[in-house]
Specification:
- The chain is built from ten helices and no strands.
- The radius of gyration is 23 Å and the shape is globular.
- The chain is mostly helical.
Length: 232
């Protein structure tokens, strides 16, 4: 069928209308996601402030909801458990190791080399995830976390999801080998972070702990390399 000029105009208008709707949908989706993430952060920050002030077990979910100015049903739509209110800070890190492996592969790095580089960079910038932070707020949060059995227990669920994401990113021919490697890597990073936090909690500064933390990380990744290469 031959299109008339009128048909061309109609097709152009229709195409433009579809494109406008698509752009509007993308913008609205982005706005909703930003609003959702902001709500997560506001509610979690309000909860942690109360937990630090009164103790985790002495704060009710109703108190947190009131402090965040939302209803309890709304709170539970965002946070399935009370423990998740405190552990939301770990949510963004659940797939961090997996992202590092994928990004490192694009740079031509093996998974272990990429993870080693990332961990050492985290030490250098005093990333709280590495345990090498003597910031007062970070230390207070770590005391809350490691001093509350239910939070430590819930943290294991986050660690498990991190292992699963990393195993998927390792993408080896043997799924069990990938799972075993992911479990070892995540465990090593956890132990390194706990040791750094233990030393700082005992009174050492992050600056003083740094050289030993770097040496320990180098040793840990060397041991991982011995056991996991050449596969990973």
């Amino acid at each position: 069928m031959t299109l008339t000029p009128h048909s061309d105009v109609c097709a152009s208008v229709t195409s433009s209308s579809v494109e406008v709707k698509r752009v509007r949908f993308v913008l609205m989706s982005g706005l909703r996601e930003r609003k959702k993430q902001r709500t997560y952060r506001v509610v979690s920050d309000a909860a942690i402030a109360l937990f630090l002030e009164k103790g985790f077990d002495k704060v009710s979910v109703a108190e947190v909801a009131a402090a965040a100015e939302i209803s309890k049903p709304t709170l539970f739509r965002y946070f399935p458990t009370k423990e998740d209110l405190a552990l939301h800070r770990f949510a963004d890190h659940q797939d961090e190791a997996a992202r590092v492996v994928v990004d490192g592969r694009a740079d031509g790095l093996s998974p272990l080399d990429a993870l080693r580089r990332h961990f050492l960079a985290g030490l250098d910038r005093r990333d709280p995830v590495t345990g090498l932070s003597d910031d007062a707020d970070v230390l207070a949060f770590h005391r809350l976390l490691y001093g509350t059995p239910s939070l430590v227990a819930r943290l294991h669920a986050y660690v498990k999801r991190s292992e699963e994401a990393l195993a998927a990113a390792l993408d080896g021919p043997d799924p069990l080998a990938a799972r075993l490697a992911a479990g070892q890597i995540v465990a090593v990073q956890r132990i390194l972070a706990e040791e750094n936090w233990r030393r700082i909690e005992a009174g050492e500064s992050a600056r003083k702990v740094l050289p030993g933390a770097v040496a320990a990380a180098e040793l840990a990744f060397e041991q991982l390399s011995t056991g996991l290469r050449p596969r990973f």
